[in-house]
């Protein structure tokens, strides 16, 4: 069930411990059901229905799962779902960007989840296209004045995760990212983000 942001923060540690136990003791079917519910929570229809709390709960569950030790079939099932999860996060950011009330609630948690996903996927996410999906997130999120510092820091963490954990993939993405940052299709991309991306790919 969906819960409020502050309550999620207060329950962070016990929630992580609980999910870790469920993952460890549950069957592969149990884990698949949990993952399916997570992906359903990331469905953009939840924002269309004015249910950002469901999305926030799903993003929180994603971050908790990434902090749980996964192995065997559960690990395979999770990382097989990564492209779908990353695409869903990008769609959430794009939709939230249209609502100045929802954007501050979802932008930072989604960026944090994307950065954590890239870090945990070191050595696993070998397909450049899968890593490239994260650029659909950072090239869409606007720097809303109220959360400017947090959003910019979140973008920095995502880019640094690529630099640190996916250097080979980064080199393959240079041309794609240069074109996207120089001539973005989405005109809502602010100049600081574009300059930051251009600096990033020139490293």
Automatic annotation (TrEMBL):
One of its GO terms (cellular component) is nucleolus. It comes from the Eukaryota. One of its GO terms (biological process) is ribosome biogenesis. This is Uncharacterized protein. It comes from Micrurus corallinus (Brazilian coral snake).
């Amino acid at each position: 069930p969906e819960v409020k942001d502050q309550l999620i923060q207060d329950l962070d540690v016990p929630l992580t411990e609980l999910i870790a136990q469920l993952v460890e003791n549950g069957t592969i079917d149990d884990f698949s059901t949990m993952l399916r519910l997570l992906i359903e929570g990331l469905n953009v229809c939840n924002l269309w229905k004015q249910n950002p709390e469901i999305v926030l709960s799903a993003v929180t569950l994603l971050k908790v799962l990434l902090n749980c030790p996964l192995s065997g079939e559960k690990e395979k099932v999770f990382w097989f779902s990564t492209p779908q999860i990353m695409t869903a996060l990008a769609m959430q950011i794009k939709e939230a960007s249209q609502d100045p009330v929802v954007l501050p609630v979802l932008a930072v948690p989604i960026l944090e989840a994307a950065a954590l996903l890239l870090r945990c996927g070191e050595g696993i996410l070998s397909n450049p296209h899968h890593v490239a999906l994260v650029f659909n997130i950072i090239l869409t999120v606007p720097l809303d004045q109220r959360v400017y510092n947090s959003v910019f820091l979140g973008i920095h963490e995502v880019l640094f995760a690529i630099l640190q954990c996916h250097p080979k993939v980064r080199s393959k993405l240079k041309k794609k990212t240069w074109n996207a940052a120089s001539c973005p299709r989405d005109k809502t991309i602010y100049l600081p983000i574009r300059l930051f991306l251009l600096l990033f790919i020139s490293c």
